[in-house]
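Q: I have 243 residues here and want to know how they pack in 3D. Can you give me a structure?
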Amino acid sequence: MRQTYFIADLHLSESRPDISAAFYHFLDTHVLNQNIDALYILGDFFEVWVGDDYVTPLSKEVAARLKQISDNATPVYFIHGNRDFIIRDKYAKQAGITLLPEQTVINLYGTPTVVLHGDEMCTQDTEYQNFRKKARGWWWPRLMLALPLWYRRSVAKKAREKSKQNQAGKSLEILDVSQEAVLDVFAKHQVKNMIHGHTHRPNVHHYKEQGTELTRTVLGDWYTQGSYLVVTPDSQKLVSTPF
C-alpha cells in the first residue's frame, strides 16, 4: 500500500531522551525499509537550533537515522519551524533531507495539498509575528550565524525563557491560527487540502468557502506521545501513540 507520513513539533533535545527514543521507534516501525513514498517533517523538529556548526551526539544520531532512510530511496522533506529555522544546507546534506520553502504545494495522491509549519497563520499574536518577520528576513539569520557559537547559545536560551513567559500570559485563542489567515493560505495556493503543525492541537478541521469544501489537518506534538499523519491514496489518518 502506498503511504506518506507527516510529523511535526517533536522538539528533540538532550533533556528529553524519551522523545528521541519514540522518534527512532517510529522510524524503525513505519519508515525504514517500509517502501513508503515520503516522510515530511513540518518544523520544530528540534527544540532549538543555533547553527549547523553546533554538533551534538543527538544531532549526529538524528542525521544518521534520517540519512539511512534517504539512502534507502525514501525521500525526507523538511520545512522549517520557529525553533529550527536556521537549519541550513550543511546539516540537510548530512541528514539526507530536502529543505522546502515555508509554504509548499505537493501532489498528495492526486490532491494538491499545501504543507507548512503553520506559525505564520497565528496572526493574532502580533508580538510573535513581528519577531517572525525579522527572524525570517535575509539579514537577521546571517547576522546570528556570523556570531560566535557560545553567544548564539546564550541568545537562544534567553529567547526560549522569554518566549515561555510571553506564552504564559496569552490566551489559547491568541496562540492558535486565525481562520482568516487559514483561508488566505487556501486562496493563495488554490488548494483544498492543508497540513501543518505548530499549535500542538491535533485535529481535522473542515470549512466551506464559496461552496468549496476545504480540509485542514493539524499535527500533534511529541511531548507526551508520538503523533503522526499517515496518508494513502484513499485516506488521511491522524495517529497518537503513547510513549
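Q: Anything worth noting?
A: The chain has one domain: 4-242. The two ends are 26 Å apart (CA to CA).
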